[in-house]
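Predict the 3D structure for this chain.
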Amino acid sequence: MFRIRRIFDDAIPVNQDAIRQVKAIIQKRFPAVSEQEIAHLGDKLRNPFTLRFRPILFVAENMRHKVLGFAMVLHEPDINFCFLDWIATAKDTLRGGLGSALYERVRTECAALKVSGLFFECLPDTPGECEPGLIKDNIARLRFYERYGARPIINTGYEAPVNPEDTCMPHLVYDDLGKDTPLARSHTKKVVRAILERKYKDLCPAKYVEQVVASIRDNPVKLRPFCHGRPHKTRRAVHDRFSEKIVLVVNQDHEIHHIHERGYVESPVRITRILSHLEKSGLFETLETQPFPDIHIHGVHDADFIEYLARACEEVPADKSLYPYVFPIRNKTRPPKESTVLPGYYCIDTFTPIHRNAYPAARAGVNAALTAADALLAGRRIAYALVRPPGHHAEQRSFGGFCYFNNAAIAARYLREQGRVAILDIDYHHGNGQQDIFYHRSDILTVSIHGHPEFAYPYFTGFEDETGTGEGEGFNCNLPLAETVDGRTFRNALMQALAKVAAFEPDFLVVCLGLDTARNDPTGTWSLTPKDFYKNGQMIGTIGLPLLVVQEGGYNTRNLGLNARHFFEGLAQAVFTPTRDRTLTQSPPKGIQFRYAPMPEDVEKIRHLVAATGFFREDEVEIAAQLVAERLEKGLASGYYFVMAVRNGGRLAGYGCYGPIPCTLAGYDIYWIAVAPEFQGKGLGQAILAKMEQLITEAKGHTIYVETASQQKYAPTRAFYERCGYTATATLPDFYSPGDAKIIYSKPVPLSV
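Done. Predicted structure below.
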């Protein structure tokens, strides 16, 4: 028995182990592959720009996480095709259904990406073209692919040897994914050029590439007739929905906690309404809640508070609710003895009761949140703990706001054992519980977007100047908003929050999902629509991290399920769909740090770095150095801002220079991006550009411009900006010299919607 899952990155131990096993399979099955290519498998997942493809890695593994086989697909979104780079099993055969399952998963993913087709290579099956011992295996492979309608492209020079002594050159095979559409010549030329220039850039000289591309003359391009099977027996059909699912863990014991008092909006129907809409989406896979020991609760809540809550709930009569009404402004060191008074010692409001079933329901919610967190540690990308009662108002030693245990904080501490964690609270009300629990810590970042405490519960926390204390200074961020907020205003705040999260560079993100930001929620004043929730999900999905979503508020049962569904559809679209967009976590290579204030020695460092690229003229090198000197002399009045990428030891690995455009309200120019030769092709340029865009966004910029030349040698520069979402908006002919135009690219500030 096995399952197939996608490996998004090598950030968590279970993925690191899977990639290690994949490397071992490659070494065993493909001994001719270089050690360097195998070693950089994880780097390719983190920095797809090193390949100029976006890699998608699937592993087939048993329940003990032993990898039985894998497939690596390269997605090219601009040309719109996929290339099957690897498919292999740990053993020497694809029998037993494993190979079919892997290939079918690849086909499903490619169909969901809406690509034109799937291309891959297969060695020839004609006697005399390869060693006799290989022909039998080659026939078996091509027979296997013919079962899906995939066949070699013919009448081209793709099989032509690069060197005269080369033999056994591969066919280029095409799978139209069941669409039965002709393969256009122009498209095929682009595909072949991309494969040869990128995948085989160290093997195929430019002359050979041009020769092969020019050999594609048929339109439409022809495929070889079926040689090993019958066309009518092919399994060509493929559905176009992503196979990856969101893990759903429901607190099945939530219904026992049902307060019937008039006006108590935190009711069981909330879960029912959400589930009714999620089931229609096809996005979820339900996991059964597993039990976890109390030690995880003790990690965030005080022992006396836990003991009180358990005892008090057990002692209250089954048909009664005990509400706090006296609170210890003074003498907190002397808890009262009277049971009817004691709730106020541990509660922050008058409307959250002690109830017979409050403790067992809240305790079951903790198990659900930890089960969902465990799914992330097992390699799942998104997990949703659909729990009630909610938890984000529960502090270290107090309950309130319908919350008894802080599910998100408990799960975050659990995930912290495997990496850095950020908590993003997007409930209408301040996440005072996480703030209180982690206020002194720097290893768990807490960020909350909420109604300003001048009008919104819990009133006494959530101010902007509450940023943490001691070691935790700067690791708590509050973004309080006005009483009237629409979707665009909320997304502007969300952009700031995600930038804060990205700068923290966590390994996991815990999202406290409040649906009480919706229009007509009885506890809120904002007006978010289903469309807004979809966009919010998309934005959070672009963070590029394993995501644990924990349900918090949301009390308008008419739109609750619809808004939840839209949020997760947006989240899934961003997470499960590889696109050309960079993520907010496009990070520099390990060992690189950013700084922003130039130092006197940077003048010479930048002069040396720009010259070392071998790309710029001497006068351009001097201009680059002069900009730093001018910034040092005039400060910010110079209009030049810098992002310095510094490697361990202080050496400059790369830098960017940008600044506001004079006489514009919010336009910004990017003047320079330069990367040291040893760091080129490793994603550092994209990381520097992303950092400049983030800083421009924070400065309320609204459009970014960059200029380059039309000469052929600047083609990689133009391609770089186009991959990063910039559009050529103006061309000034003969600007630099006859025949050399200036091309002006522009891009709206990221996510300024």
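Residues 291 and 607 are 61 Å apart (CA to CA).
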